[in-house]
Amino acid sequence: MSTSGKRRTVGAALLIALLSLVAFAVPANAEPPGIPSTETAKSWLSGLKVQPDGSMDGYDREKFPHWSTVSGSCDTREEVLKRDGENVNVDSSCKATSGSWYSPYDGETWTQTSDVDIDHVVALGNAWRTGANSWTTDKREQFANDLSGPQLIAVTDNVNQAKGDQSPDTWVPPRTEYHCTYAKLWIGSKHRWGLTINSAEKSKLDSMLGSC
Question: Are the beta carbons of 97 and 91 closer than 8 angstroms?
C-alpha cells in the first residue's frame, strides 16, 4: 500500500472513532422543559386551588412507579442525567459512564452519578396529600416519570434527601439565586397536574416570585 493510501486508511479510522465518541456524547439542556415565565407563573399561582393538605394515610412510594423505561434500556433517571449533565457519555445499556452535573439547588458540581439524585420537584408525598391519592396508579406513574414538564431535575443527593416531601413554605433550595426558578418549577408542575396548595405554600411562592 502506498504512503498516501495508508494515510487515507488511518484518517478514515480516526474519523470513525471520532464519530463513535460523538454519537455517545450527549449535549445538555441543563433544565427541565416547560418552566413558565414569571408572569405566567403568577397567573397560574392565582389559579391553583388553595386548601389544607390532606392525610398521608395509605401513602407508599411504590404507588408512584419509577423509574420507568423510556426506550430500549433507557429509563427516566438515565434520561434526566443525560439531559441535565454536561459532556455526558453513556454505554450501550444507557448508563452514564462519565460527565459532570451541576446542581442548581446548591451550586455544586459532581462527576459521579452516585452523588446525583433526580428530584421530583413536587415530591411524591406532597403530591399524595394534595390530590394524587385519588389518582390511578397509571396516572401516578406518569407524574413520577414526567419528562415533558418541570417536575424532574438532577441535583445533589443529600440536598434532595434533606428536602424530603416538603413544600416551599418549609423547604427551599439553599442557593437563594435559584429561588425564583424553583418557585416557577413548583408552580408549573402543580398547575400541570392539577394539584392543590396550602395557604402558607401560596404565600411563600408569591414571595419567591418577587425575587425574579
Answer: yes
pTM over the 0.70 mark: yes
pLDDT digit string, tens, across residues 103-122: 999 999 999 999 999 999 99
Gap between the Cα atoms of 163 and 173, Å rounded: 8
Residue spans of the domains in the chain: they are 28-209
CA dist., res. 151 & res. 165, Å (int) = 14
Written as nine digits, the cell of 205 is 411562592
Query: What is the 3 state secondary structure string of the chain?
Result: CCHHHHHHHHHHHHHHHHHHHHHHEECCCCCCCCCCCHHHHHHHHHHCCECCCCCCCCCCHHHCCCCCEEECCEEHHHHHHHHHEEEEEECCCCCEEEEEEEECCCCEEECCHHHEEEEECCCHHHHHHCCHHHCCHHHHHHHHCCCCCCCEEEEEHHHHHHHCCCCCCCCCCCCHHHHHHHHHHHHHHHHHHCCCECHHHHHHHHHHHCCC
Output the furthest CA–CA distance in the chain (Å, rounded).
81
What is the bridge-based pairing of β-strands 69-71 and 96-103? Answer: unpaired
Its sign, for the CA torsion 207, 130, 128, 118, is negative
The pLDDT tens digits for 55-70 are: 999 999 999 999 999 9
